[in-house]
Amino acid sequence: MLTGCSEDKKLNANASEPVTAPATDANANQPADTAPIDPPAVDPPQYTAPLTGLAQDSEAKNRPIAVMVNNFSAARPQSGLPNADVVWEVLAEGGITRLVAIFQSYTGSDPIGPIRSNRPYLIRIGDGYHAILAHAGASQQGYDILQHHGKDYLDEISNAGAYFYRESFRKAPHNLYSNLDKLRAGAAKKKYADTVDIPNFQWSEAGATANGEAASKVVIHFLLKDYKLSYLYNPSTKLYDRFINDKPHTDLTTNKQLTAKNLVVIGAKHKTYDDYGRLEIDLESGGPAMLFQDGKKVDCTWERGGDGAIHIMKDGQELPFEPGHTFYHIVPMTPTFEGHVEIVAE
């Protein structure tokens, strides 16, 4: 009994002492004081989208498709613009603008539209990407180029109506839509080439405007005073948010505001050649330009390269875009190029 009491006292004494777990290691075969093994390095993606510079898991060789998108007030908000690698904005008749949305890396089936007619200078924008052109009708000069100069095109009116559709929630002509599944099926039916040599552009995470002028707000004036396009730089996203008449320009499908990583404004000679107000726009001769990135602006020039694409240059060198989506804007040279752009540094 005395022995038992003695053992109980020892047990009680031990119970009051903190218990320390033995040292362990994530790798049972390694000594406890060995530093943990770093996880294996992950190789960066091998491929980048040629028109955004963004990383992707596989090499996307899809031929670009250039869609002529309606930008009349009755056509907004449009569908599909956030999925475009590049969007061009250019004057059409009456002072309103038209959008040319270039799709290459996106492979989904979201709707695109409303889709409108083609013009010679819109064809030339698509040519810069060796793109298939998607539209609904064209001017007389436009049809002459399409039909007699070997262009690959899908026209809802003349040769590809089955690959477009009308929506009931809008009135014609602001209700024509398609999607990439339909357009690529139409291109395959017509046996258009499904891959092409896509022009090369320069890409850099650092961009080209580190020493540029502050430009947290950019206002672009085309012709109509009641049509004001503006962008506000968002430091948290490092993107420019797009507005029309001071209201967010949104996507109908997602209800999200349109954004861009790079903004480009280029000056080109405009000429009205008929009573309807149709335009000729010189997209061959080069001219002044402005590049906006990271809330800053750099003055530069544009020129059409031997690959057919328009490149942004300074001092004889091509300026790099930051990986992401790019919005281009073509404004007249009169009365001045600079007069079409208002910059606010906040």
Automatic annotation (TrEMBL):
Residues 1-51 are annotated as: Disordered. Residues 51-192, 220-327 form the DUF3048 domain. Pfam families: DUF3048, DUF3048_C. InterPro entries: DUF3048_C, DUF3048_N, YerB-like_sf. It comes from the Bacteria. Gene3D superfamilies: YerB-like (3.50.90.10). Residues 1-11 have a biased composition (Basic and acidic residues). This is DUF3048 domain-containing protein.
